[in-house]
Amino acid sequence: MLNKKKLAERDERKRCELDTELLSSKYPDIESIVITMDYYHKGYKDLMMKRTVNFSPESHAYFHMECMKNDCLEGGFNLTPVISSMVKRNITSEKGEINCQGNNLSEHARIIFKISIKYNRKTS
Ligand SMILES: [Zn+2]
After folding, report:
1. CA quadruple 89, 115, 8, 48: dihedral sign
2. Please, which pLDDT band fits residue 122 given cuts at 50, 70 and 90?
3. How far is the CA of 104 from the centre of ligand 1 (A)?
4. How far is the CA of 30 from the centre of ligand 1 (A)?
5. Which of 38, 42, 43, 113 is most deeply buried (CB count within 10 A of its CB)?
């Protein structure tokens, strides 16, 4: 069950997401972004969950992914730096791993992510 703090955090995240500018204004050259994440919890070698998040130009450019562990507070996986560095280098696909930095639990979850970016190839 979700505790109150986690629920409040979720509301806060939603607000942050809605406050973030749209993908089309942040990165006008991007047509779509697909983020696939495999969640692993510490102590379990099996995959806990698989998640795919799609971004279109109308999506909010909010790339801070939630930690799926219910008792984790202020954790999550921030893919913003990865994406901005990909865009800078004009890279279409990147893989990596991030540990959750939740403040009340140490090293309890990690994701293996894959990001694919499709750029507009319009010739102007
Ligand atoms: Zn966490």
Report:
1. negative
2. low
3. 9
4. 29
5. 113
Q: How far is the CA of 121 from the centre of ligand 1 (A)?
A: 37
Token pair 């495999």 is found at 38
pLDDT digits (tens, 9 = 90+) for 2-46: 688 888 988 999 999 999 999 999 999 999 999 999 999 888 888
What DSSP letter does each residue of 42-61 carry, written as one string?
TT--S--EEEEEEE-TTSB-
What separation in Å is there between the alpha carbon of 48 and the centre of ligand 1?
Answer: 13
